[in-house]
Amino acid sequence: MRACLAGFAGRGLRLIEVDKADLVDLPAIAALVAPRPERFIAFCDDLSFEMGDASYKALKAALDGSIAAGASNLLVYATSNRRHLMPESMEENLAGTYDAQGDLHPAETVEEKISLSERFGLWLSFRSFRQDDYLEIVAHWLRHFGLAAPDIEAARGEALRFALQRGSRSGRVALQFARDYAGRQGLADTVAAGSS
Hints:
The protein is built from 10 helices and 5 strands; from the N terminus they run H-E-H-E-H-E-H-E-E-H-H-H-H-H-H. It is mainly alpha-helical. The longest helix has 14 residues, at about 55-70. It is elongated, with a radius of gyration of 22 Å.
């Protein structure tokens, strides 16, 4: 989001960071920005809900309301580690009903939960990296922290074990490994100054 804002701020893009609890205020935000000439992104980082949290219903209504209000200069972006923003239990998926022809009609509870994610028109999914991609990102960060090519090559096995222990090969895991590894190599000052 920061890169997007930096690239388009000169052309009128503005970013409004909104906490999950404040997303119900989207209609008010839409009303405030609608008459302005700039384009706005209301951004919520790490949006998800826990089992039993009913606040997602208010967010669904707010998202529909902000769209209906006609603020054509406002988009809502959110990041989440959950595809449907809500936890889904096995019981909910098994609670479907069958008609006379044997067709399954999913339980309404599941449909209601999924309907929140449907209010976001565009989804981008980031799957785990291939091993070579992960190692390339590790190498990038190790070079950034001042390690030489032979040291980077020597770190490959440890980088793979690090990812295996965390159950993921992602950019975040690659950066965490590189910070840790460079710090243990005596480059703590470089890591502290150059990882932001």
